Amino acid sequence: MNRSVTARIALVSAVCLIAALPVSAAQDPVLELTGKARKAYKNEHYKEAHDLLQQAVARIGKRITSSFVPFLPEAPEGWEIDGTETNTLSAATSSGPKRVMEAERRYIRKEDKRDVTLMIANTPELIRPYRQMAKSAAMMKPMLKQRGITLDEKAGWYIFTEQRGPDDCRIVAVHEQVVVEVDGAGQEKTAAKFIDEMKLDKLAQTASR
């Protein structure tokens, strides 16, 4: 099967998926784009239909990413927020391309200007190895201990705490489809402050939608 035929089949599949969407939902940019894409496809303007669908997918990705932002905690006492960023990109996985979403917030402690970064992402390459490590915890225990890593489980979350030095701690919390990373904290209790402020159960629900 040549590339143009394969691309045509993929486009047909996408159009079939959006065909079920209600086109009367005005003012919604995604529905407006998919409606235009359907019309372009019917008129055999395939490149235009493809471009419109790509724009719709990008907007959906931004909505998913923005859904992570409310879960970024406010600054703990003595800290202030130094910036919030979101990012959406396409990553290759074993099951095909996946839309990867990241939301990141930086914090600065007023007294000594220490900076901490907290990231929420649905990146498979981050989630998979940590979950595999957790499921093999009994076998991996000596290696984890040697690296200064402790592992806890809380309501379906695997929480890795790594004390990489006397003043360098990182916490990684992993669920089935989302990962949270706190990096740059000096001590475990400092990193834990940020995790404790998060509603991890609701974040897991949001990531699975």
Structural features, described:
This protein has 209 residues and is an alpha+beta fold. It has two domains: 3-66, no CATH class; 72-207, Protein Transport Mog1p, Chain A, CATH 3.40.1000. The protein is 44% helix and 31% strand. The protein contains seven helices and seven strands. The chain has helices at 3-19, 29-42, 46-68, 124-135, 137-146, 188-196, 200-207, and strands spanning 79-93, 96-109, 115-121, 149-154, 157-165, 168-174, 179-185. A seven-stranded antiparallel sheet has the order 1-2-3-7-6-5-4, with helices on both faces. Helix 2 runs antiparallel to helix 3 (46-68). The protein is globular. The relative contact order is 0.10. Mean pLDDT is 82; it is low at 1-10 and 20-26.
Structural class of the secondary structure composition?
A: alpha+beta
> Biggest sheet, in brief?
7 strands, antiparallel
What's the total helix number? 7
Structural Rg: 21 Å
Architecture (CATH level 2) name of the largest domain: 3-Layer(aba) Sandwich
Under the CATH scheme, which class of the largest domain? Answer: Alpha Beta
Signal peptide: 1-25
Keywords: Signal
Keywords:
7 helices, Protein Transport Mog1p, Chain A, single chain, alpha+beta, 44% helix, 31% strand, signal, 2 domains, 209 residues
